[in-house]
Amino acid sequence: MGGRGSWRGQAGEAAGRRTRSRRVQSRRIHEHLHVRARQTTCERNVKRMENDAVVEGRKQRLTGKRTIRSTVYDMCTQKPPHDYSAALYEKYRGVFETYLKQRVVPTLQEKHGESMLRELCRRWSNHQTMVRLLSRFFNYLDRYYVTRHGYRSLKDVGALCFRDLVYAAVARDARDAILAMVKKEREGEPIDRSLVKQALQIFVDIGVGDLDAYQSDFEVYLVTDTSMFYKTKASEWVVNDGLPEYLVKAEECLHREHERVGHYLHPSSEPRLLETVEAELLSRNETELLEKEQSGCAALLQDDKVQDLARLFRLFQRVPNGLLAITAIFRKHVEKEGVELLKEADQAASERTEGKKDVCGVVEQNLIKGIIALHDKYATYVKDCFSINGRYNLSDTLPPPTATPPGPHGPTSLFHKALKEAFETVCNKSVCGNTMAEMLAAYCDNILKKGGSEKLNDEEVEALLEKVVKLLAYVADKDLFAEFYRKRLARRLLFDKCMHEDHERSLLSKLKQQCGGQFTSKMEGMVTDLQLAREHDAGFADYLASKEKPLDIDMSATVLTSGFWPSYKFVELALPAEMAQGVETFKEFYAGFTKHRKLTWIYTLGVCHVNVCFDGKRTYELVLTGALQAALLMLFNDEDKLSYEEVRERLGLPEDELKRSLHSLSCAKYKILLKDGDRKKISSEDTFSVNTSFSDKFRRIKVPLPAMDGEKRKVVEEVDKDRRYAIDAAIVRTMKSRKMVPHQQLVLEVVQQLNQMFRPDFKVIKKRIEDLIAREYLERDKENPNVFHYLA
Hints:
By secondary structure, this protein is mainly alpha-helical. Helices cover 64% and strands 5% of the residues.
């Protein structure tokens, strides 16, 4: 019993296994048949697409879209050998290759020109539609099989098939057709821009993510055609047109090419396209254009053609080194006009007649005005015409040039440099025997003093001073200007000739900003001294009021700091009792609040007002320069007649100062004193008396002292002396920091340190080095005499 039961159990288990096996095999066969059925449906739909159902634009409905996607999924998810992923990938490529070879290429080869372009654009659009639809159907294949094996995506496969079969066959013809249409448009004929844009988009899309196809198959040939086209045009225009007309045409061409890029070319073509146009129209013919005799760059500057100059700058700043020739012409033209002004001033000064006074001074004033006007004119040109953001360049719509602008401030810096070099040449020449430094100082004096020839309001004065300081920047000998200006400032301050103290301070502030604080330190000290002098005047008035016995004369004294003011010659003078009383009283007052300063009286400065009655009836007020004339006249209060020797003994004056004073009172315009002998010269044999018959229509009369000979020479000598000190200090300063310096390097460093104030002469530097060696500040190297050592 037990054995039979066991056998039956084993047989039942075997039968169950066979039944389950048959069920699995049946299910697999069913699934395989199901996949084969879906595959058949998929192939049928793909075949319909091959037969142009979709691509030709007929809206036939594909049956079983969802079935196709499911079939692709099933075919790609089976285990080998039933995994059809590779076969589907190849089938996808085969569909495109078959269709393109049999339908598209033959059709395109039958057409030419614009009709071929239109057919190509239509076929490309249909091809993209086909790629898009099939990519959706085969999405699973694209997401997993393609990604896992690193193959190209289905979209790229479709594009590559079109590139290898269609594009390769018609690219040359399509390019020629596009270039022909571009040339027609350049000649002024209308074209179908949308067609060109669609055709060029094919060149871009064929690259599958890059522009290699567009650049190598189209852009290179476009640039070549552009170069040939504009080379021909330029050769015609340069012969037939002047520079202004040529520039207008060149700018129009650049704008049209810029617009052409916006209409249908790829944006990446714009830089090369514009560079080609610029090279053919501008670079190639630059020299010939700029040097045209009647209409070149110099003629534009001469005729003030600001619009044309701005266009010239706009165009040539796009060309590498295109502005160098223009800036050279600009500098040469400005320099030429400045030198002409100098020549005219020299000629006007040489033609002056004996009867005219101070003609050279008037000529110098007019010259400075002319140079300021010239600088204003061409500085405005640089600002408005030769600047990217200039007044006449704001309407420029072209993209910025690809060339790197020269200088830290772009191409405009070239013109600033040219303007600077031109005015450095002009402002370092002499006129009428006077340097520009001296003339600028005189011009400032004329603006700032009372009674000057310039009648200006406050705003005009400030603007003019600003322009003068700009001119000073071009002057090499700034220290010479400083000394001449300091002399004139002293006269304005001491003789109360300042028109407005605020203007004086304003100019000093501008000079300080331009040349540094050391340049204006003495001048600022002079202005400060005058402020303190007003306080002393008020204190001295209170001091006199507190005294029981008043002075016989009205007196005020100005205390000056000797280090700030120009050096003045001290003259011994025996003062009249009235004047001596005032001097002693002021000494007592000043000693009351300072005991460590010594007062040295400069009698040649200041102003004396003397009331004189010649005939006992009418009184005149004589305005005299300094105390010398006043002391001399007061001698005749007690004497009717004095000889030259008697005057000299009583006043104790040096002979030159005595003759100056006597000449101003007896030989000048106003004959206050009468003399014997020659009426134009002072002699030691002369005798002087009061002119009792003197009369004049004015009651207030100014009697100036004659100018001293050699005053200008003394200023130059003082400046030369200061320069020697400055060179010595620069040499010692350099040697102290370096200890050992070769001769050439030492000279260069000294020049660099001092170049801001003046241009030191190499010969003078060499002499100062030898002097310092003699004074044992330096010594030569024993082995190399061109090397110096510092001696501590």
